[in-house]
Amino acid sequence: MFRLGLLVCFYDDLELLDATVAQVLLHQMIKCSHLRGFQTGVQKLKAELLDIATENQMLNETLGSLSDAVVGLTHSQLESLSPEAVHGAISTLNQVSGWAKSQVIILSAKYLAHEKVLSFHNVSQMGALLAGVSTQAFCSMNSKDLSQVLRSAVSQYVSDLSPAQQQGILSKMVEAGDTASGIVEIQGAFFKEVSLFDLRRQPGFNSTVLKDKELGRSQALFLYELLLKTTRRPEELLSAGQLVKGVTCSHIDAMSTDFFLAHFQDFQNNFALLSPYQVNCLAWKYWEVSRLSMPPFLLAALPARYLASVPASQCVPFLISLGKSWLDSLVLDSYKKTSVLRKVQQCLDNSIADEYTVDIMGNLLCHLPAAIIDRGISPRAWATALHGLRDCPDLNHEQKAAVRLKLLGQYGLPQHWTADTTKDLGPFLVLFSGDELSSIATKFPEILLQAASKMARTLPPKEFLWAVFESVRNSSDKIPSSDPMPGCHGVAAPSSNDIFKLAEANACWALEDLRCMEEDTFIRTVELLGAVQGFSRPQLMTLKEKAIQVWDMPSYWREHHIASLGRIVLALNESELEQLNLNSIDTVAFLTQQIEWSPRQAESILQGFLDDSGYNIQDLKSFHLVGLGATLCAINITEIPLIKISEFRVVVARIGTLLCSTHVLAEFKRKAEVVFGDPTEWTSSVLQELGTIAAGLTKAELRMLDKDLMPYFQPSAIKCLPDEIFKELSVEQIASLGPENAAAVTHAQRRRLSPLQLQSLQQALDGAKTHSWQHAPASSGPTRTSSSGSPAGAPLSWGLWLGCPLLVLMAKLLW
To answer: Which UniProt keywords are given for this protein, alphabetically ordered (predicted)?
Structure first.
């Protein structure tokens, strides 16, 4: 066995194996995770070996010798373990990857039952099981122990914690008193959870301390402004990575020409962190101070007419520069994007001649019009172009059709493809019809499954999923149950192996198939089924009934049951939700991970938590508010004033992610005024922190906001503004929204705008210059002129006024 190496992953002679040999094989199979494309078979083999290794054995005694196959143990097997057994095997269990949430909950409870008191020592041993520690348990820990946890190796698992658990840790550290040192110790992405309120009352930050922390935009806006006032070396702020998120247009405007040009590379190095509005500001600054040396991709952030300034001699730098960025994040307006792509086509002369041209295009390849894909790519360039197209995340319908026709022309119909051709074209199989894929499903089912497994992050077309489904069903054993449920005689119900192979294609099961699923199959695969995005409401209802059949009524379900159900919980009606035991905020947090609750379901969850926990609204802690998630939108608006300010102020950003009704947002806005003052006093960082809460502003409050604050609304807040309030924005405010917020304006909001407001909105989408600029030194190169004859970028035709004092006076008054 030791000499088999990776061949152990294909071992299939299991009949004569005993438990000891099965355990040795399982240990040898750890290396099988390195195999690409064979994980379905590996999973099945591990499950069979696990059954042999645990048969007639005391699980408490063999737990530590089951290697990473322990993730295949069922809930009942894990619950049968003693706390002592889990404690003894913790050095194995804490290193295993692939645990389901429900398994982590059970094992953590067993481990902590042995430990009694939660300390740094025993928490540091938990590794991958850390996410099973309850929020309340974290809050009961000594703050010094928590600080040690965040500095230790186990901190890598903090990102696996729910928002409620993370807020529980934060609240405990802040409660300890020495907030500044506690906050400084928080590293990585966890730092984003620190509230703006806590940041604003803490001194002692510097660019060095912040280098290893991920910042939210509201944090960055506040900290950059704060540190800019105290630092003697502002260039250190730009080189501190995440702090560039906080650079505003006024900061960019205030930079001298020499400083800006010397440190523009810092912006370019952190381009992915910049908002479209910041890129627009950088583009205008560069245009003002040194347009001849301007990086060509920045022209895409200026109004479309500025693309005309790219001469043919600069096409290659323009394509290379633009191809290194993602056009969808740089240009949000479809009209403007069309103009940019027209310039790209002009530079290409509507054709791609060779591999070199493909290389310089970079990400622009994903935006090639269908006509160029179909007729403009030479045979010499096609292979390289095809390799680049496979990484494009969002080809449109016309582009996909063009690629499909090109492939059919090159390789013929799929029924004639070889295995190698099918493998090579794996990412493009989704482009073909169900009929075209049927031959692939029959000839090369494993290749089709491998292609499907690589699409886990996206939802493939239904026809592709059906082809995957048919290939698995055709190759399945299809053995009807020897003891079928009533009405299931002759039905070949899903097997565990089928469900594991199908992934998102499980959405193709008929209701009858799901209803006839064996209980053991459901227990082993419930987590996978709960993760399927494509299940219809009737399918979810059928799976919910199966859960009731297996686990009894919802009143008997425990936290790990609810955690394992995933989207299946959406099928619970109000009465069934009321039966759940919701006394733990962690249980509620598993429910609120789903975002498709109806208002009545959300109200049942919120009320269920209050009833079962015994809390009143005024008793809720910050981590309760975070854990309740979108169910907070179901709160009675008369109860919002009862929420403690001390708890609300540290979770404003989390509440600001909720898409609540206007009335609820308006009440949260009143609460925000207690924390941040009158809306006339709000800063850019406050608006960012508030998120959708800012959509609760009244007409009068919205009109009073400085136009320079408009880019700092979050796009979600713009969408949440009622149509009748949004139309009250002035022409100047709308023009100052910035590209991202302008793109967030809904069709309903647009319909209420006047022609002048619509014109301002188009200016914001186009990246027109609306922010105030100081006069920058003139470029050393010649001044480019616009089509009107005035200097490019000049707001008015100054030449008309120079000869007439009266017109000059009028111009000054108007400007």
So the answer is: Cell adhesion, Glycoprotein, Membrane, Signal
